Protein: glucuronosyltransferase
Amino acid sequence: MSMKWTSALLLIQLSYYLSSGSCGKVLVWPTEFSHWMNIKTILDELVQRGHEVTVLAYSTSILPDPNNPSPLKFEICPTSLTETEFEDSVTQLVKRWSDIRKDTFWPHFLHVQEMMWTYGDMIRKFCKDVVSNKKLMKKLQESRFDVVLADAISPCGELLAELLKIPFVYSLRFSPGYALEKHGGGFLFPPSYVPVSMSELRDQMTFLERVQNMIYMVYFDLWFQVWDIKNWDQFYSKVLGRPTTLFEIMAKAEIWLIRNYWDFQFPHPLLPNVEFVGGLHCKPAKPLPKEMEEFVQSSGDNGVVVFSLGSMVSNMSEERANVIASALAKIPQKILPLRLYRFIPMNNFAKIPSILGHPKTRAFITHGGANGIYEAIYHGVPMVGVPLFADQPDNIAHMKAKGAAVRLDFDTMSSTDLLNALKTVINDPLYKENAMKLSRIHHDQPVKPLDRAVFWIEFVMRHKGAKHLRVAAHDLTWFQYHSLDVIGFLLACVATVIFIITKCLFCVWKFVRTGKKGKRD
Amino acid sequence: MSMKWTSALLLIQLSYYLSSGSCGKVLVWPTEFSHWMNIKTILDELVQRGHEVTVLAYSTSILPDPNNPSPLKFEICPTSLTETEFEDSVTQLVKRWSDIRKDTFWPHFLHVQEMMWTYGDMIRKFCKDVVSNKKLMKKLQESRFDVVLADAISPCGELLAELLKIPFVYSLRFSPGYALEKHGGGFLFPPSYVPVSMSELRDQMTFLERVQNMIYMVYFDLWFQVWDIKNWDQFYSKVLGRPTTLFEIMAKAEIWLIRNYWDFQFPHPLLPNVEFVGGLHCKPAKPLPKEMEEFVQSSGDNGVVVFSLGSMVSNMSEERANVIASALAKIPQKILPLRLYRFIPMNNFAKIPSILGHPKTRAFITHGGANGIYEAIYHGVPMVGVPLFADQPDNIAHMKAKGAAVRLDFDTMSSTDLLNALKTVINDPLYKENAMKLSRIHHDQPVKPLDRAVFWIEFVMRHKGAKHLRVAAHDLTWFQYHSLDVIGFLLACVATVIFIITKCLFCVWKFVRTGKKGKRD
Structure:
């Protein structure tokens, strides 16, 4: 009885929220690949709730494809780069990042920075094309959008919001060294218990690991720059007609929707305007196509292993392919490889969910992309991780720390290594148990990640912002933020007092001495 | 259509949460007065959802009164103190705190510390009575509770949880200087933009205010001790039979339910296991009793002003009472004073909500208790704050900073001051607007505060804890936490390298010089 009553009350409350926000207009500055797939889940939900969603794509966009049938509106901005050129350069970047995985620390991150800058230069070019397109900007102005939704990893969304004088919300997976989160969002990452992103460390660190983490932090804070900041700052200052910086504009974000949660991420401090909405793209498993279901059923009690190494497969050497094939041939489970048409991991993205949610799935061999790992968490499937680049090694390190995955090195693993890893995650019940624990944590949240993401976007539209969640840290310079001026002032005060006291004592001593001397004379 | 569909889905999800947690057993270590009233709202809701709630009261408890008809179970522990003695000593404490309000910084906080210690000594005595009562402890053991719910401001709940080997959840309004939050909970409060509690500062501080805040922080970190820590540590070590500290046991809390939210508090960093559930006791206004409704209606367009100064009224001098009365006589609004039977502010607590929610209420004259302020926020009523002690000055400073209140000084205000303050909050539309803004923020949350509080208590019962939300900071010593060992080590490394290089250069120089000398010879 009381349950029903409470449910009814909650329904009323939720209906109020759902109905009270009259439908709004959302402008989207998208990113490609897995980023787009993830943000698209939010956009589809926004459309479902009656909002008008306009995606600002450049004419060479690959995934935000206006030709695909979709309830989303597209606003296309022409650029000089052709689609093939754009795709080729992105392919090159991804391939290069995957190639440099054997580099040691310093050259590795130098290369990562170089690639981020190349990618950033391309985005800046597109951004310039948009903001200098007077006709387009006039149209956007006239459309009177309520909010801009942007991926923080691709700058420009915040500039558009600033030009259109509307609030904006970020979606973000992570940035190398948490640079954007720190400098743009004001997040805090104490190095003693928060491993720097891409460090592959866990939250419980030994002394030497903490030393390593500190070196990472110093490196990322002082040397590494996600973007070619100087150029971005100049560009933003020029467009806005006043001296400003990229981070200053980023810091105006109303809400940060981080595509992570505490089933995946190690707990760390957060801010009131940060929501962890990892796994918002996950959905309950749908029935498999008949042919596939028959294949899965034919595996009997042994079940199946889902195999998807994303982008790496197409570039794999024959030797590596043989190592994998020979291990897979030796396990009693059937293998469900996901076909790959192009390098883009997202081509198989849509297929993973249903297969991972099948009760006969015993393990998931994965390259460690965040979206795929969230599918495994959602369905409670233990993993064998063979990470290659970007956040993949870090993702697998997290799953390993939480006892839900075994990690292998793609370049050095032998057939036996892979076989043993598979046997371990399938036969040691602890791995399944830990994966199920993560799954239970993921499913047991007061509000589902997707609903939370949409709630806060709608909140920003309803209230024209969410300034009450914004820490005052954003109004301070870096030395004010670290209280260096205050500490300096207080030390100066103490020094002055000590100086005056010493001076006085010295004077008294001198006076006394002179007095004594005088007496003696 | 899509709205309905979404609502239905959300209902299913919520019903799942509500029904999936089979009913659990909650043990409560309560605190008195407003603290009890607040936690009782949670307990009533837990009972409504089918949980068994047992309150561990000492025989002298004032508000957690087992003689009141209630669906709560009471477990009474006898103590040597009589009820009158207990009440008298608490009355004395509250009176004393209110008396020292005119003290300057240093003596004021010395007195506050002295009072906290006196109160703490009393709590420790009760705690000793409980844990040394073998019969009671055996009964509690056998009852197999799922979770302990305790107010962090009254230690002992965490000790009971440790002895019973069950998880525990804290409810907390605040602690002086955020000592418990910092040392027990691992919260972060950067002094550059988070004003220390009881400092009456706002989040946007001038340079001198930041200096002041830093001095507050240093004072609270190095001098002020909320509790007589040495005695508590000894007591806990003795009871648990191993060297431990109060803060070490407090740090095991699964969830901290902070009785605050960003409509009231200035945004600051938080942790994944912290929920801000301020205002969970607020409910929509019920119709007033007939007599009172007639009185309110007779006010016409001018409306009424609600007047409740909590504990201070009974101790008020005639002169102060006259100042207030003469101001109230001059406004066109009718006055609704809340009668006070005893010093306990909570006697009128239950009456405030309905009156503040009345459409004819124009303003609220308040002493600034957190519960009352939340009622005003909930209903969007501007305030005139006349704070006296504890968090009251800070609370009013927050409301003033958010533009919803005018602050007066109880001891120095004149009749004209009060009159002008009332006129300002009633006639300047900005105050009502700001109060309504806070109200809108308060009402527009994905899940209501009370539901969130209950959700996380149920979560802890369902999963036997919430360790995935606990930062690894708790496993570090203070110097590890601040990375002092790592910084020391790295500086030593740098020094060694510099030393070796200098030494080598010196050797080379010496060698070269000797060579030259040899040649010359």
Q: What stands out?
A: Residues 32 and 63 of chain B are 6 Å apart (CA to CA). The first strand of chain B starts at residue 25 and ends at 29.
